[in-house]
Amino acid sequence: MIENSKAKSFASPLLWANDIFCSKSTGISWNSLAALCWIHRAKMDTNLVEMFRAGLNWVTMALDAPSARVVLFGVRIQWHIFVEVLLGFVIVILLSQKSYKPPKRPLTEQEIDELCDEWVPEPLIPPITEDMRHEPPVLESAAGPHTTVNGKDVVNFASANYLGLIGHEKLLESCTSALEKYGVGSCGPRGFYGTIDVHLDCETRISKFLSTPDTILYSYGLSTMFSTIPCFCKKGDIIVADEGVHWGIQNGLQLSRSTIVYFKHNDMDSLRSTLEKIMTKNKRSKNLRRYIVAEAVYQNSGQIAPLDEIVKLKEKYKFRVILDESNSFGVLGRSGRGLAEHHGVPIEKIDVVTAAMGHALATEGGFCTGNARIIDYQRLSSSGYVFSASLPPYLASAAITAIDVIDQNPELLVKMKQHIALLWKGLKDIKGMSLASDPESPIVFLKLENSSGSTKEDLLLLEKMADRALKEDSLLVVSSKKSFLDKCRLPVGIKLLVSAGHSESDLVKVSESLKRLASELLL
Amino acid sequence: MYVRALPTTDVNRNTEWFTYPGVWTTYILILFFSWLLVLSVFHCSPGMAWTIVHLAHFTVTYHSFHWKKGTPFGDDQGIYNRLTWWEQIDNGKQLTRNRKFLTVVPIVLYLIASHTTDYQHPMLFLNTLAVFVMVVAKFPHMHKVRIFGINGDQ
After folding, report:
1. Rounded Cα distance, B27 and B37, in Å
2. Would you write out chain A's pLDDT as a tens digit for each of its 523 residues?
3. Which listed residue, A104, A140, A446, B148, has the most CB atoms within 10 A of its CB?
């Protein structure tokens, strides 16, 4: 029946089926198939069988019809022509359709009801936990070595008044005369009529004190660091920062949008391996700007950064160093010139030095020192400088006076160092806590020996200790402050900020009290 | 010699490249040259080469037009995050010229592939399956439809 190009026809399914059924080679005929059906279903209706056979006969005849072998223009007409013509029609229909935008289907009533039923309102404020209820004590007088809290006179170990300059008569005198001369505010940013001669004098005085080419003043101590870092570090740069930096620096790192790599707190081996990894792993690192950010005296732990090693590493791997000297300016070094003098490193080797003046200098504001180009760049690109009002003039003149006082009275530093040593001696054998800070840092940090593992629990315990110290012994001590945004994971503890203005009896009192409370609460 | 292209009205940077003149021609030329490439690399019959081109075209276009959602640009704030490229072009308008062109191309490729392989079995089956999936995916009724949740959002 079908002899044309068996190879092609075998591929065609219908013809193939037909072939199987009708070919003499397979020996199955319609009749035998019907017989099989009949044998299988004993009660089959013969009418159906008849119809079935008639239908199949018709199909065979149709396929066998002469048109199946018509040759039209040299192309054999087979079933695939129909498929192609069909697809051609589909294309034509498709191309003739008009374009339309699918209608926006609004939500049905039922869908709206479902959504409303599922919705659970979120509370406006999170549930108040135990650690949120703690309110720090409020000072009712100046934050000197002795202050008033709740009407009671307490010894103040919570203010960073390292040299005891709060309430110093020279500072008060210069403030009063500045107030009388310039008024209170400066009413403008530095670039827009807010620059007063006291600002320029302050900048020159700081430069002379630290023997750096230039200085720039900021109006808020905390914002010094988080304006300086994004000024120099941009997206795509690499910053290697210590994991224990305070929140201001963390904010600056986040604002800079650079790649941040943290190294273990004050661990020079970790820093070395991190720098090594960065420089060798990424071939592109050589074309990126690279920075190391560290604090001179860490606010969160009281450690002092080993600047000589940092400078050695920086010179080996070609990084730039940004150092925050807030707690070391006026404190470390033989004449109070900061960490560089303390370690004997020339200050030119540090690229950017910033400091907040609210600590040893007992004023407010901050400054940044360094190369003249670095400082000049900040005058146009640093957000905190350009977009904030400038420092009130009386604070700038107080800063000048404070530096003069430090210059002329080196015995303040000696006294402060003696007080630190005394406190260390007193707290050496405290039970349940250990001294975790550097022996020369003005921040004496007591961390819990057996931490409960959760920061909240530790803080609750420490706050209880601080509250009892306040109530029973009239001592104002603080535990480390942890805000929700702070990503620092260092252990919490009690921070004691030693001042040159404390008397020896104060120090003895605080060590006795802490030892007693630690043995009562922590064992 | 250079065509002066009007700035496009499509704000979606993921799909605006398809609105410029010359895209269709480039598309067809890419298909043709890839057929030549396959022929020269694999030394197979022309029909086999067309089948390979058709199936490769199916894989590539299905993945990039109908599977991957969203845009590679971060600053469009994720408004296209649930839409595949096919659902994004021409701003969601159905049956525009671009869409008709992109629907016709796989059908034509199928016809060429199946014709030149003489409708032989393993290739024919694969080609038919490919074109079926391709064309169904491009129906206007399938706009934003995810069958059985395949490629749906969490």
Report:
1. 15
2. 444 444 444 444 444 445 444 444 444 444 555 555 455 554 555 667 777 777 667 666 655 555 445 555 555 667 777 878 888 888 888 888 887 777 777 778 888 888 888 888 888 888 887 767 778 889 999 989 999 998 899 999 999 999 999 989 999 999 999 999 999 999 899 999 999 999 999 999 999 999 999 999 999 999 999 899 999 998 889 999 999 999 999 999 999 988 999 999 999 999 999 999 998 887 777 788 999 999 999 999 999 999 999 999 999 999 999 999 999 999 998 899 999 999 999 999 999 999 999 998 999 999 999 999 999 999 999 999 999 999 999 999 999 999 999 999 999 999 999 999 999 999 988 888 889 899 999 999 998 888 887 888 888 888 889 999 999 989 999 888 777 788 888 888 999 999 999 999 999 999 999 999 988 887 7
3. A446
CB B13 within 8 A of CB B76: yes
Distance CA A470, CA A472 (A): 6
Nearest 5°: the CA angle A248, A251, A256 is 130
Q: Which of B70, B42, B69 is nearest to B56 (CA)?
A: B42
Ranges of each domain in chain B: 42-70+77-146
B88 at the A interface (CB within 8 A)?
no
DSSP A288: S
CA atoms within 13 A on the CB side of A181: 15
Distance from CA of A113 to the nearest CA of B (A): 22
Give kind and range of the element (H or E) at residue A353: strand A352-356
Return the structure tokens found at A186. Answer: 């400066």
Taking the model in full, what pTM does it have?
Answer: 0.64
- The number of residues in chain B equals 154
How far is C-alpha A499 from the chain's CA centre?
Answer: 33
CA–centroid distance for B24 within its chain: 11
CA–CA distance, A167 with A413 (Å, rounded to integer): 17
C-alpha distances in angstroms, A61 versus A51, A64, A209, A362?
15, 5, 112, 110
B95 touches chain A (CB under 8 A): yes
b/e per residue, B49-87, with b = 16+ CB within 10 A?
A: bbbbbbbebbeebbeebbeebbbeeeeeeeebeebbbbb
CA distance B69 to B51: 28
What count of other Cβ atoms lies within 10 Å of the Cβ of residue A301? 25
The two tokens of residue A63 are 């396929």
| Region for residue A499 given its phi and psi (left: phi exceeds 0; alpha: psi -120 to 50; beta: otherwise) | beta
A245's tokens: 């930096």
**Which candidate in A14, A94, A95, A235 is best for mutational testing of the B interface (most B CBs within 10 A)?**
A94
- Residue A97, chain B, CB below 8 Å: the answer is yes
